[in-house]
Write a structure and sequence with these properties.
Rossmann fold, 6 helices, alpha/beta
């Protein structure tokens, strides 16, 4: 099986989602081929391209780093209109070269594992490849998680991998809410 892990930061960075993705890629894929698509950012506040662009190895894992081409103007978008929420997601952390890589290379992979849920790198990758996308949401009960674009993301992916039972229970609450709204 060939897996591609997509995360906005990777390696020796602070951040639970990023560290979990590194652990999955390097320690949980014994016998599988794992690659990572990530950005050149280290700091999750400024999102500057600090690491060199290109491909490197993390043990047996190929890590493809791409420059950030869009930094967030602000990640908080709960409470606004639907169009404003979508515009905020569109204005989140994103890498045009990474998106081109995904468009060209997605066919080589059996699954694309994405994390965390709140950033453009995850949202737009899942939109481009919903049938192959597995989301590690790193979901919290926060206002942004309850917005329509984030609910759409959670319902769009092929499946979710949860880091805890509490996270899965929160996801199930979201699903119930979506089903009730449809009725």
């Amino acid at each position: 099986m060939r897996l591609l892990f997509v995360t906005p930061r990777y390696g020796e960075v602070a951040g639970g989602a990023e560290r979990a993705m590194q652990g999955f890629a390097t320690r949980c894929c014994d016998g599988w081929q794992a690659e990572v698509a990530t950005t050149c950012a280290v700091d999750h506040h400024l999102w500057h391209n600090e690491l060199p662009e290109g491909t490197e190895r993390d043990g047996d894992v190929l890590v493809h780093r791409f420059p950030i081409t869009q930094r967030p103007a602000g990640l908080r978008f709960a409470g606004r209109s639907y169009l404003s929420q979508v515009a905020s997601v569109a204005g989140s952390v994103w890498s045009a070269p990474m998106q081109r890589f995904l468009a060209a290379e997605a066919g080589r992979f059996d699954a694309i594992v994405l994390a965390p849920y709140l950033l453009g790198t995850t949202f737009w990758s899942a939109a481009a490849h919903p049938g192959k996308s597995l989301l590690v949401p790193c979901l919290h009960d926060e206002p942004d998680a309850h917005t329509a674009p984030m609910r759409a993301l959670l319902g769009r992916v092929r499946g979710c991998l949860f880091l805890s039972r509490a996270e899965e229970a929160l996801f199930q609450e979201f699903i119930k809410y979506r089903q009730q709204k449809k009725q």
